Each structure stands twice: as structure tokens, then as C-alpha cells.
Amino acid sequence: MDAGLSGGSCLISDGRHRLVLRQAHSTASSPFLRQYRALKRLPPSLAPQPKWLIDGWMAIEYIQGEIPQVLPPADDLAALLCALHRHAPLGWRITLLPLLARYWQESDPSRRTPLWLKTWKTLRQRGEPPPLRLAPLHMDVHTGNLVHSPDGLRLIDWEYAGDGDIALELASVWMDNTQQRRALVDAYAQRAAIAPRQLWRQVQRWEPWVGLLMAGWFEVRWQQTGDKQFISLADRVWGQLRTKGKER
User: Fold this and answer.
1) Which value, in Å, is the radius of gyration of the alpha carbons in the chain?
2) pLDDT for 147-185, tens place per residue?
3) Mean pLDDT across the stretch 45-66?
4) Residue (of 38, 223, 215) closest to 115 by Cα position
5) Which residues contact 77 (CB under 8 A, 6 or more apart)?
6) Average pLDDT over the chain, rounded to whole?
7) Which residues contact 92 (CB under 8 A, 6 or more apart)?
8) What is the DSSP letter of 146?
9) pLDDT score of 246
10) Does 237 or 12 have the greater pLDDT score?
11) How far apart are CA 11 and CA 156, in angstroms?
12) Mind listing the pLDDT tens digit for each residue in 69-107?
């Protein structure tokens, strides 16, 4: 058994086959059951296949391959996301407002700044952008959740998957800068036959939502773990939100 995986996961092996074994936070965890159902519905070309779910434990196919140090080229990532977004809906919608409220409530009260409260109230009053196209979303695309397998690029860790706007997915990909995101959006627009400007505007509408979502998640993870890296990441996102607020 290899306990080197994060997020409550480990590897199990009988000497010939390896599986990823994951434990739910609660045996009645609806999101955990949803993750299993999502993996059951998705093809092997996109995601690892689940083997069984018993008493809060889930066994998933282990994907052999390389975890990239940087994101793949824009066109390769766009092709993967387009393939996912063309799949049939998973059956449940992603809604951000309940998550934003939960992160506020579960965070350290001393970290609840006027910027956080103001941004949250503004978004709540504005409401989530109407979707451009509804599709199944992964919602946690970054280098650590991509695998270059012998059969091609695949996504792992589907904990946050659900149905939502394709532009929300593109706004949520962990990237270093605007130029990198614009390249992904342009590549995606070409493959999906969407006007690039239209798609980019929709991505920009989602960006403050994603920024607050990420900052809140980092705040809660720091509260749960005491790991200071999460505070550093949260402060970085708060700085970005503060700068963008001044620009508007």
C-alpha cells in the first residue's frame, strides 16, 4: 500500500493491478456518491473508471502516466475539455453561491475582511451569469490533476464535478496569467465553434466568482490543516481581487 497520495487517498496493489482507494469524509457524503456516479458515466478516454463503492470507500482505476509540471499546450487542453463538455450531462448543477456562503462560515473569523464581505455581497446581488452552454465540468483542472497516459491526456480527481457553464470551467483552470488563459479560450472557441470574443467575455464574467471561490477554499483549508501555504495562496488571490477591483 502506498499512502503517498493526498486528499485521503492511497494506492493498493495485488502485485499485478493497482487501484486508488479513497475514503469519504462521511459514509453519507452526497458529493462522494456524486463523484462515483460521475466516473461511472464518463468514458475511459477522459477519466479513471470506478471499480466499487462500499461503506464510504471507493476504489478507482489507477492511471499510469506522467503528471506534467506545466499545463499542456492550449490546443491539447482545449481538445480534452471540449471532449468532456460534449458528454451527456451528469445530472446535477454546480451552484457557487452556497459554496461561497459555506466558505465564509467555515473560515477563521479574524480573516473575514471587508473586501471579502463586499465582494461576496456584490456577487450575491448580481447573481451567477446565465450559462453560455451547459455541460459536465471537472472544476479542478490544474497540473496535478492531469495525467499524460499511454492513451492520451486524462483528468483525475473529480470531486467537484457537475453540470455548469463551459466558460466557468475555462475561468477555473489554474493558470499563471491572462495571456495563457486567453490562448486556451481562443483554442477552445475554435474547436467548439463559438465566437472567441463572446466566449472571452463570458469567461471574464465568471472570473470574480472563481477568484472568491479559490480564496475561500484556501481560507477553509488553512483553518482545517494549519498549513501556512494555504494562507499564502489565499493572500495571493486576495491581492488579485483587490487589484482587479481598483481597475474596474
Assistant:
1) 18
2) 999 989 999 999 999 999 999 999 999 998 999 999 999
3) 92
4) 215
5) 71, 141, 153, 173, 184, 187
6) 91
7) 34, 162, 163
8) E
9) 64
10) 237
11) 14
12) 999 999 999 999 999 999 999 999 999 999 999 999 999
Residues 171, 168: Cα–Cα separation, whole Å? 5
How many whole angstroms separate alpha carbon 213 and alpha carbon 40? 27
How far is it, in rounded angstroms, from Cα 80 to Cα 156?
Answer: 12
| Cα–Cα distance measured from residue 214 to residue 219, given in angstroms and rounded to the nearest whole number | 9
For residue 44, list its beta bridge partners. Answer: none
Torsion 71-74-79-82 (CA) sign: positive
Residue in 127, 133, 218, 226 with CA at minimum distance from that of residue 174: 218
Supply 164's cell numbers: 455548469
One-letter amino acid of 21: L
- Which grid cell sits at 139? 472544476
Alpha helices (H) along 29-73: 30-41
User: What average pLDDT does this structure show over 18-23?
Assistant: 87
User: Measured at the alpha carbon of residue 76, what is the angle toward residues 44 and 170, in degrees to the nearest 5?
Assistant: 90
B/e letters for 57-91, b = 16+ CB within 10 Å, e = fewer, are ebbbbbbebeeeeebeebeebbbbbbebbeeeebe
pLDDT of res. 45: 94
In this model, does residue 1 exceed pLDDT 60?
no
